[in-house]
Write a structure and sequence with these properties.
The protein has helices spanning 2-33, 53-57, 94-107, 125-137, 154-161, 185-193, 237-242, 264-268, 278-287, 317-324, 329-335, 346-359, 364-372, 513-518; strands at residues 83-89, 113-120, 141-145, 169-174, 177-179, 198-206, 213-214, 221-224, 230-233, 250-251, 259-263, 292-303, 382-390, 395-399, 405-409, 421-424, 429-431, 434-438, 444-448, 458-460, 466-468, 473-479, 489-495, 505-510. It is α+β, with helices and mostly antiparallel strands.
């Protein structure tokens, strides 16, 4: 009987220990997954953070050095300037804001960093409490709360901060970013030599789910489609071939506004310019004597940097078209549901014309020929223009050396000149002077253009099919039937079927031919 009681007691003790271990494991797992590890704070919240630059580095994770190797051989600026860093805060999580702030503090030398402004607008109580604590903890941090009703425009956020910015140079950035090592030095160096430019770090990608920091191999530039929304693309082969080094600065047609820097003197000169979004600002900068420069040696990570959802949607685009596009605005109206130019913008357009005369601005044709080049430039009356993408596979097609059309996954970039198509009013689907030719049940090839050739005249159906005008046959994305070609993706002419998704294609731009012809 004593042995049974003893065994029962031992079993009870063992069960209690097992329960405690189980609770401990559950707690450890819960704390592990409660927030992504790369955003977890590694400090005691009660400790002050008036630390040195090296001590701040202990508060952030070590990011991979994603710069080109040549960047590490570049000399540092010999003249230092006071830099103000403005972080715009809207609905980001506190953990993201803290990660952004600490990465700035850890990777910006103290002899450069003059002030950090945390600019908030209609933020939550939790966020406001964190911002107040950040200002109390960090001697270089100030909080600016914007009280305006409604949504703030891109310009109003910038102008509102100018009264409190005291640095010589200003960096504007969003609060879901992480600054990598040596990110600020190339910015200071370039602006010291070119104070009227606007510079942009290359964005590396931070995976939204895992938090993994993924370096961008090639710099990604930003252009626009003809409905005046942003689109990303890689530099052309010609640009890269002409560069002396992969670390050299690159021109980019527009800035998205996620992160950019310039001198305070330059920004003050923007005040009389009636721009609202970053696309309109980009047009003004290039046309009126400024440049927008991408710096491969400056790296900043952003969550989902190159997803479509990360690009701000441009508002009032018809107003932008009327003010800036000149002879090219016909393509905007043909690519959108907007009617032809509205008389309500007459006064604004006159104001812009006066501004252009005062500042001796170029016209938009100069911008297209000098900055944008042929990649986005339609010519004549077109039904469609740009990259040709298979809708179900998201694969874009380009011309091979043998004049067949091959699909390349992840290569929907206008930087590939062999992949920029235009469907003209005659139905010719061309790249330069070569046209898509569809052989019945055969490969689609590129041949000399001939508007009388029925195998070269195409139309776009309501089902997004590209169909020969003679009927029956449509372009179709196929895996090459020749097994020796190892799953090569090709275009073929096949019998049209409404239920066949691989006969559906998307161009970068679709145009209403009736609108284009009426705008002559």
């Amino acid at each position: 009987m004593k042995m049974k009681r003893s065994s029962l007691r031992n079993l009870t003790v063992f069960t209690g220990i097992a329960c405690l271990l189980y609770v401990g494991i559950v707690f450890m797992v819960w704390t592990k997954w409660a927030a992504p590890s790369h955003l977890e704070s590694q400090r005691n919240p009660a400790e002050p953070l008036r630390l040195s630059e090296n001590e701040y580095k202990n508060q952030v994770r070590t990011l991979p050095d994603s710069r080109p190797n040549d960047c590490k051989l570049r000399t540092q600026p010999t003249q230092w300037f006071k830099v103000s860093i403005v972080i715009f805060i809207t609905n980001e999580e506190v953990a993201q804001i803290e990660s952004t702030l600490l990465s700035v503090l850890a990777n910006t030398p103290s002899n450069i960093l003059h002030q950090i402004l945390l600019v908030s607008h209609r933020t939550s109580v939790t966020t406001d409490k964190y911002l107040d604590k950040a200002a109390a903890d960090h001697k270089s941090v100030q909080v600016v709360q914007l009280k305006q009703d409604g949504e703030l425009t891109f310009k109003s956020k910038i102008v509102a901060t100018l009264t409190v910015v005291t640095g010589d140079m200003i960096v504007f950035m969003e609060a879901d970013m992480e600054c990598n090592r040596m990110w600020i030095e190339p910015i200071v160096s370039h602006l010291a030599d070119h104070p009227q430019t606007v510079v942009i770090p290359v964005l590396d990608n931070i995976d939204k789910l895992s938090g993994k920091y993924i370096g961008t191999v090639k710099p990604v530039k930003t252009g626009f489609s003809w409905d005046l929304q942003f689109m990303h693309y890689e530099p052309t082969f010609t640009e890269l071939a002409h560069a002396e080094s992969e670390a050299d600065p690159l021109q980019t047609p527009v800035l998205t506004g996620n992160v950019f820097a310039t001198t305070k003197e330059n920004i003050v000169s923007w005040k009389p310019v009636p721009f609202e979004g970053s696309l309109e600002l980009s047009f003004y900068l290039w046309l009126c004597g400024h440049e927008i420069i991408l710096l491969p040696c400056s790296r900043v990570g952003k969550y989902s940097a190159y997803s479509v959802s990360s690009l701000p949607v441009q508002q009032h685009v018809n107003k932008v078209a009327d003010k800036w596009l000149g002879q090219y605005k016909k393509y905007f109206y043909a690519a959108t549901d907007y009617n032809n130019p509205s008389t309500s913008y007459t006064d604004v357009s006159m104001e812009i014309n006066d501004l252009k005369q005062i500042k001796k601005c170029h016209d938009f044709d100069w911008y297209m020929n000098t900055v944008v080049l042929d990649l986005f430039k339609p010519v004549g009356d077109l039904a469609a223009f740009g990259t040709l993408k298979s809708q179900p596979s998201s694969m874009c097609f380009h011309v091979e050396v043998n004049q067949n059309l091959e699909g390349l996954r992840g290569q929907c970039s206008p930087a590939r000149e062999t992949g920029i198509f235009q469907l003209d009013a005659d139905g010719l689907l061309r790249i330069h002077d070569r046209c898509v030719t569809g052989e019945t049940h055969g490969y689609v090839t590129m041949n000399d253009c001939n508007p009388d050739d029925k195998a070269q005249t195409w139309t776009i159906t309501s089902k997004k099919q590209i169909m020969l005008k003679s009927g029956q046959y449509c372009l179709m994305h196929n895996t090459d039937p020749d097994r020796e070609r190892k799953d090569r993706q090709v275009l073929m002419a096949q019998v049209c079927r409404d239920d066949e998704s691989f006969q559906q294609f998307v161009f970068s731009n679709f145009f209403d031919l009736k609108k284009l012809k009426s705008s002559r």
